[in-house]
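Severity: low
Component: inverse-folding endpoint
Summary: output formatting inconsistent between runs
Steps to reproduce: submit the following structure tokens with default settings.
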């Protein structure tokens, strides 16, 4: 049962971080809700890794901390910016 709660927490935090990142990044992103959750989850890992590199602390006190949510949003913004830059280059033009 512990794993189900962890997975649901990842999904909820991913949705929140991905949605806030989409609001903060200018321009239109053609992403579905599941893709927004994936961006948020990947952003959570990126934010956690950057937080560990900067502050040398991990999630030993729990990952549902305000600093963890903020780190998840910052990581999701970084991931979304990379996604929009890389995804924009793969567009196909029709004649």
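Observed output (run 2 of 3):
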């Amino acid at each position: 049962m512990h794993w189900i709660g962890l997975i649901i927490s990842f999904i909820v935090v991913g949705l929140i971080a991905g949605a806030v990142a989409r609001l903060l990044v200018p321009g239109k992103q053609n992403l579905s809700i599941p893709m927004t959750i994936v961006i948020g989850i990947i952003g959570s890992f990126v934010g956690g890794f950057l937080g560990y590199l900067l502050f040398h602390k991990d999630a030993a006190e729990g990952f549902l901390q305000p600093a963890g949510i903020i780190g998840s949003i910052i990581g999701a913004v970084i991931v979304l910016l990379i996604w929009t830059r890389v995804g924009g280059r793969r567009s196909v033009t029709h004649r």
